[in-house]
Write a structure and sequence with these properties.
The complex is a heterodimer of chains A (65) and B (245). By secondary structure, chain A is mostly helical. In chain A, 68% of the residues lie in helices and 0% in strands. Helices cover 73% and strands 0% of the residues of chain B. In chain B, helix 3 packs antiparallel against helix 4, helix 3 packs across helix 5 and helix 4 packs antiparallel against helix 6. Chain B has 245 residues and is an all-alpha fold. Classes of the chains: A mainly alpha (65), B mainly alpha (245).
Chain lengths: 65, 245
């Protein structure tokens, strides 16, 4: 397996790897956003230090992601 | 023969759907990983070099699945939004919201990979032909849907407003699909029809495997997201405290 040929992609390396790179960065980003949403939810649902539940941290844009 | 029938309507309730979705997610996640690995392997190590385009054509294996996902997910989103509106079904509207982000991302991927392929194949990053323009409109429809819902505080009003936008916009999807037949277009015509395909079998295989991978990914991610939406919107419900314990 000639790796330098593989990355060169017949001269089209920038286009091919750019495409797959953008794809996996965006899909990975989507997964990361979901992980963040999970953390924010857990944080919001857990009992606060003084036993107070804070539901004021509503960020309606975040809820759409 | 047992007389037990499954009452499917039971799963229209967020309380019942939430654990069902939770059980489904790991299976779809594993399938996603396996199919991506298999598809990329076939696409890069089995499919031969293209006679005309050399190696640049390999972008097709992600560009076409992403474009299809953008279109399919929009239609699915519109159907869920319509059902949620017509039958006042909260969970259906939540599904529409959950789908919107994933569909938008795939549409964006199709635009970017298309552009990166257009430069070596056609010499230009962009043309205002029917397919590219209508796909850009699809991107704006997704952004519009997401922004519209985000801007309305009351969840059910947000659901209904989004449903109107989604349903009005759905006409765009057949326009994208048939654009290459109806108008002179720089974009390639349909390679896959019901009767034939004009590609090498290994190329077709890679494309279809990656399409399946994108479907499995979409299902996984949408189920995860809809569970978070349920938790956020059903915050006050008694069943939720037990379910997430």
């Amino acid at each position: 397996m000639n790796w330098s040929k593989f990355f060169w992609m017949g001269g089209y390396g920038l286009y091919v790897w750019g495409s797959y790179g953008v794809t996996f960065i965006l899909l990975g980003g989507e997964v990361l956003m979901l992980l963040k949403r999970k953390r924010d939810l857990a944080h919001r649902e857990s009992p606060r230090e003084f036993g107070e539940r804070s539901s004021q941290l509503e960020n309606s844009f975040q809820e759409i992601q | 023969m047992s007389n037990r029938k499954i009452n499917w309507y039971k799963y229209a309730a967020p309380a019942n759907f939430y654990p069902l979705a939770g059980k489904m997610i790991p299976w779809f996640a594993v399938l996603t990983a396996l199919l991506f690995i298999a598809g990329l392997y076939v696409g890069f190590f089995v499919a031969p070099t293209d006679f005309q385009q050399g190696e640049a054509y390999r972008i097709i294996f992600i560009h076409v699945p992403a474009a299809w996902m953008g279109m399919f997910l929009y239609v699915l989103m519109a159907i869920y939004a319509g059902v949620g509106w017509a039958f006042n079904a909260r969970l259906a509207s939540m599904m529409a919201t959950a789908i919107s982000t994933t569909g938008a991302i795939f549409t964006f991927i199709s635009l970017v990979t298309g552009s990166l392929w257009g430069r070596p194949a056609w010499g230009v990053w962009w043309v205002w032909d029917a397919r590219l323009t209508s796909t850009l409109i699809l991107m704006f429809l997704y952004i519009g849907f997401i922004s519209l819902q985000a801007s309305i505080d009351d969840p059910r009003r947000a659901d209904r407003a989004g449903a109107v936008l989604a349903l009005v916009g759905v006409i765009n999807v057949p326009i994208i699909y048939f654009s290459v037949q109806w108008w002179n277009s720089l974009h390639q015509g349909a390679t896959l029809t019901a009767r034939s395909f004009k590609m090498a079998p290994s190329m077709l295989a890679a494309m279809l495997i990656l399409l399946a991978a994108c479907w499995m990914y979409s299902i996984t991610v949408v189920l995860v997201r809809v569970r978070y939406i349920i938790r956020e919107r059903e915050r006050e419900s008694p069943w939720l405290a037990e379910a997430i314990a």
